[in-house]
Fold G-rich domain on putative tyrosine kinase.
Amino acid sequence: MKEPLPISIDTSSEISEDEISLLDVWRVIWKRRKFISLFVIAFVFFTITWSLFMKNIYQSKAVIIPVVAKDSGGTGGTLSALASQFGSMPGISLPGSASATEIVSLLDSNILREKVVERYRLMPILFYEQWNSQKKEWIRDQGVISTLRRWLSNLVKAVGPSDPKAAHSNNEEGIPQLWDALRLLDHIVQIDNNVKENTITLTVDYEDPEIAAKLVGYFLDTLTMHMSAEAKRVALINRTYLEQQLQVTADPLLRQKIYALMAQQVETAMMAEVKENFAFKVIDPPKVPDRKIKPKRALMVVLSFFVALFVGVLAAFFMEYLERVRNSSQVKESEKVRGDGQ
């Protein structure tokens, strides 16, 4: 029997096709090199110019940790048991230590942020571009832009405001309202709750580094005052209720426990008056940042170069494709004319 001849695969044609395709790619790039270069240079120059007009943003932050109340001896268990007995009665609630969830919820709440804005008069600071510091008044919009903005505002109101905060804004055009400040704070204030380490990080990003640090301090001070006032209010309500129960209670043992609960309410009110480390402790206080966090102009320029290069190459191939289609259509028309002439 004859042995089968080995099958030889000619890969020279595949290699040549790859070489031709790569050569065609390089020819297209080289042919359109001026267009690609100009496009990349223009795009990078635009990015550099745009980044220079962007405002520097600085970040200031503070790290706090909730204060956990400690029970002394068996008093805590006795008071907790008595509190469970009075829990079925309306009007009493024993104030406990603030949890991280409660603190985060307060920092995110509009109630606290409204107090910060009103207490420290932050409207001219947050909207300094619309505030005339010399005349101490707001700069009202005038001209075509103001008319267009008023027309769009009326159109939105006619259709129905998509944002519930916008429905309560005043009718004064060009003057920022409290809801505008709350929306702005939503963008510049961030709260991060680290459940593992039981820490809360309050971060403020702003154009002025000193104002960024002050805003963090304003939030912490207002949070302390709010939680202190709330604890005193609850302690007063509880004490009033316990005094009423004391008048109608004849059992000596129960009266003694009520006195212990009243003593705890007095202690809570006194601790709330101190305010220092009442509900949380500041681990890392806010400091004035010395470096901006954004924009990262060098990274923007590098990314713009590669993006422009990629888009420029794609545009060059598209232009080459259009040129070939146009040339092929011209060749077909010329051949058709020659055929008609013959």
About this structure: The first strand starts at residue 57 and ends at 66.
